[in-house]
Write a structure and sequence with these properties.
The chain is an alpha/beta fold and about 260 residues long. The protein contains 9 helices and 7 strands. The longest helix is centred in the middle third of the chain and has 21 residues, at about 110-130.
């Protein structure tokens, strides 16, 4: 049931921390993976690491012409798309750590960052689903997996961004949780819309991933989870394969939460 042999899978944001893990998981389950991200050279390089059968393409998820070109490339080579993982997203990073606490405050949060997040995190998911997902609807088969977050379900816990001295180093800014909440709602809409065409649409909501953060943050985050640790990047591989495969054949419109118990209490 978990085999993805002979399936064509497209992963956006594929060269990011979790994007690479999604690609590896799908490839290991037998899928042919289209590694899609903004930097085409990086995509091709990573695709070659996965194996000869996989390809890398450059794509801007918020640009219609870029996505149309990607669609043509994929269909010219494979004729079909079976799986789409809408993983591309922006998570604010502030260039100056000393100014991050002030810049990330809701009262000070720049409109430009808000609009950029909306463009990629929501419009990107909409366009990828509209342009690439429509191929699935025409063929009356497929699985779309939208990547959200625990912060699309519950509000950010701002206390975990305080250091050992209780100083607020920065705030989880407004755009990420708002856009991830929208992704969950979009999933439900599309699952209902394409249900009769046998296109399943589900959300994966991961928790925080350990990635060289400050020790105070890793401790604060881990203490907030039931499993008392942050996720390893590989912790979401099984969930991706499950949602992509026939193992979840009667599942659509759902939000699979894999967060170490963060949202359980």
């Amino acid at each position: 049931m978990f085999s993805l042999k002979n399936k064509i899978a497209v992963v956006t944001g594929a060269c990011g921390l979790l994007g690479k893990e999604h690609c590896k998981a799908l490839a290991e389950a037998g899928a042919t993976v289209v590694v899609a991200d903004i930097d085409e050279n990086k995509c091709k390089e990573f695709a070659s690491q996965l194996g000869d059968m996989h390809i890398g393409i450059g794509v801007n998820v918020s640009d219609v012409s870029s996505l149309q070109k990607a669609k043509e490339q994929i269909l010219d080579k494979y004729k079909i798309i079976d799986i789409l993982v809408n993983n591309a997203a922006i998570n604010d990073m502030f260039e100056n750590p000393l100014a991050a606490a002030e810049q990330s405050k809701f009262e000070n949060y720049p409109l430009s960052l808000w609009e950029k997040s909306l463009d990629v995190n929501i419009t990107g998911v909409f366009l990828c689903s509209q342009i690439l997902g429509a191929v699935m609807a025409e063929k009356r088969q497929g699985s779309i997996i939208n990547i959200a977050s625990t912060y699309g379900i519950v509000a950010p816990d701002q206390s975990i961004y305080k250091d050992e001295k209780g100083e607020q180093k920065f705030y989880k800014s407004v755009s990420y949780p708002v856009t991830k909440g929208a992704v969950i709602s979009f999933t439900k809409f599309l699952a209902a819309y394409w249900g009769e065409k046998n296109v399943r649409v589900d959300t994966l909501s991961p928790g925080g991933v350990e990635n060289n953060q400050d020790e105070y943050f890793k401790t604060n985050y881990s203490n907030r989870t039931l499993l008392k640790r942050m996720a390893a990047p590989s912790d979401y591989r099984g969930a991706i394969v499950f949602l992509a495969s026939d193992a979840s054949s009667y599942m659509t419109g759902a939000n699979l939460v894999v967060d170490g118990g963060w949202t359980a209490i």
